[in-house]
Every structure is written in structure tokens, then in C-alpha cells.
Amino acid sequence: MYVLDELLVNSAKRDAGRLCLIERNGQTENYGGLNGRAEDIARALHALGVRPGDRVGICARKSIPTVAVIFAILRLRAVYVPVDPGAPLARSAGIFADCRVRAVLTDPEHAAGLAENLSGSHPVADGGAVGPFRCLVNDGDQAAAPEGTAYILYTSGSTGKPKGVVHTHASAAAFIDWCSDTFRPGPEDRFSSHAPFHFDLSVLDLYVPIKHGAAIRIIDADEGKQPKSLTSLIAQDRLTVWYSTPTVLRSMLEFGAMEAQDLSSLRVLCFAGEVFPPKHLRAFSTALPGPVYYNLFGPTETNVCTYYRFDRPQDLAEDADIPIGFACSGDDLLIVDPDDTPLPEGEEGELLVSGGSVMTGYWGLPERNATAFAEIAGRRWYRTGDVVRRRDDGALLYRGRRDRMVKRRGYRIELDEVEAALLRHDAISQGVAVAVTDVAQDTQIVFFLVASGDRAPSLLDLKRFAAQHLPRYMIPDRFEALAGLPMTSTDKVDHQKLKDIARGLYTQ
Length: 508
Hints:
The chain contains 15 helices and 27 strands. The chain is α/β, with parallel strands linked by helices and 508 residues long.
């Protein structure tokens, strides 16, 4: 097994002059240069007291120096903790306080605000400049993270407080090595780096190309939200491997003028993070039939635990299921009932995962860890909360989230099924169903939609369509048209914000 920093060291030894990183401003860095930057930053952090097992926060926009920071932290056998630089500084400071960082590297404009927010939890000293960053240092006593820990990614928690997902060099390597075997990357490849570094999709974006001496096109947050910029950069930089959420691909299809760009360089296109409605996947792959398409599935806690390869997604039926597929990353899968009893083939149940790509646990949450894992047949299994069933060929079909199942009038309702049915409407581009309780404590379903054209379908049309595709008890109580769905910083639909809007509809 290797530690992640060795991927950069080895590629720099093979060919120091090979192109490694590309930014939109035309700035580039080769493997030798990136390795040298990482070494310089590692020395500076060590001089400030960073030691193996220490957590080091990163609050900085995506750039070549930020990539160097990640590898510098790994070189010290410390643990990097990236946050969204566009998030409120109080939230970022709360994350850094929760995992008791030894230091924070941040863009200069965030330094004062972060220091002020951090000072309430522990003393913070100004460590001065480290490359283009400011360094804030916590001189207090720190307990080291378990040996082998590489990074902690914070995800939204059901309690409203973010929780830290702890991954090791080994759990990352299990996924990286599977990608190597599956996608067969080489030095001639050029990967997109669309995901922000606090999002788990960045694990593929960074480490797979660097392992193989390939180039990485860094896509910053502003560029990543401009569909025309995304299609043009694929063409101009001749990218060969793309990885993003389906929402990003849909925006490229609708607003990216794909037909005006030469996207023939792409050979692998991966999507993950949310469901890709069949009509959008079919339309996108019809516009871009060249690449091999992969659906990569798995929560942050497991990296990627299943995959499905599409040979001709453009031939999908409108009502087709999009499989999440088969086990990968060396993981084993189990489908169980609420009592953790394995279910017969074809029955729906919760997906459990055990294997090399699974996290060690949540940072500082022993009670949550006790419920997040199950001990079955002498093995430790992570409870994903995802409901799946296995079809005849062995591929898994995603049936929704356990926490997205509601009961109304005695009926069990999967909100994902409501969405899938209504998204078949030709005039609906996007749609999300949420459930809230009204003042009488009755469950109400609100369907938020974005129209495909200039005008949203009428309420009568929507109710008629819903009645044709859903049983009466599953028809939403309200339909709300929006100009666009709210998004998180990781390019997923912000379900929590939609629930807040829905609650407001019943308290007015």
C-alpha cells in the first residue's frame, strides 16, 4: 500500500518536465515544479509545528498552489481538512474547531475573519505567509489522528451540524487503484478537476491523473458555474476524462452550446453525486455519443462502492431505470431489512458496504459511529441509508433514500418515485419533491419544478399528468415553479433549502 504523496513523488521522478496542472488563466505547472512547491510548503508547515496526525485546514480557492498545499500536508503525514472558501467563515471555523486543527492555510482575504471566528474556541496565532497563503496556528495540545489518516471531508449532518468523514491513505487508494484498472489512464490523458476539494469527487480528479503522470485542468468555482465555459475548455484543452454531477452535465446540454464545440477528445465521462434522470442522460449522450459513460455511486463515507458502464445510454427508454451497478473498489455489498437480515434476490432493502474504500468513522462522534455501522457475520458494514434492489443480471437499482421515505394516510411514499414520474413531463427540466408537515401536523408533499421552456405547465396540466403516472395518494399537494433550483457548493440540489421554502408555504 502507498501513501498518497508518493503518487506525486513517483510521477515527478519519472518525468519532472511533464505537464501536470493547467489553470484557466493559462498558468501551468509541471510535475517537478508541483513537487518542489509541495516540499517548500511542507518545510514551512513543519517549522510552524505541524507533525504527523495533526489536522491542517484549507480555506482557499482552487489553484495550483492549493494542490501543492494538499500534497505538502500529506508529505508530513498530517491530515488535510478542506472547506468551501465561499461558505460563511463562522461555518468553516466551526469545522476547524471541531477537528481541532493545528493550522489553517487560507487566502489572505479570509485570514482576519477566520482568526476572529476561531479565537472563541482556542487561541490562534498568525503564522505569517506560507507561499501565497496566510497561516493561522493553534499552539494548544493536540491529539493526533489515527495513523494512516489522510483527509477529513465534512458533510451536512441531519442535526444541522456538519460531520467529519475520516478517510485513510488506504481507503483512498482502494478507489484510486480501481479507477486505474477500469479507465486505463496514461500520461497522454487530460482530466477535468471540476469538483471543489471539499467534495469527494475530487479524490478521482486529483490522485488518479497524478498517479499516471496525466494532466489536470483545474476548474475554479466561478468557471464551473458557466456551461459555455465548460464546453469550450473541454474543446480547447482537449480533455479526455470528465467527472461531475449530473446537474452540471444537464446545464452543459441546455446552455453550453455543445453542438458548436469539438468535444471528440473525451473518451471517459463519469457522473456521480445524484440521480441522472433518464431523459437527460439520453439527450446528453445523444449529443455526445463518443465517450464511454460510467455511473459512479457511493456516499462520501465509502468513496465509490458501485459502478455501471453504459455502452449506449442514448438508447435508454424514457422510463428506464439507471442502474448503480456492481461492486467496485474491492468492496462487498449486502442488502438487508430493518433488522439487518440479508434479503433474497430481487427484494428492496438498505445497502450496506464493507471493504477497503470505507471510511474509518466520523470524527469525534462515537455514538454516531455506533449506529452508522453494523456487525454482521463477523464483519463491519457501513449503513448507507440507500434503498436498493438487485435486478436479474446482478446490477443494483437505486430506489431512494431511507430518510426520503414518508408515510401519508397510511401509505408509504418514496419521494424519489414521485420525482421520477413527474420528470417524464416534456415541459419539466428539473424537479424535486419534498415533504413537510403543516400546522395540523399532516404530511404535505411539495413538488418544485423548473420549466424546460419559457412557461411552466399549468396547475391543471400538472395535476392531470400526475394522475396519469402516480396513484392518488402520491400526487403532490402543491406545485411550485422556480427559475432555478438552489444548489449546494458541490453542485447538488439543496434539498434543505427547498424544505425551508416548503415549510414557509404552510406557515404564511
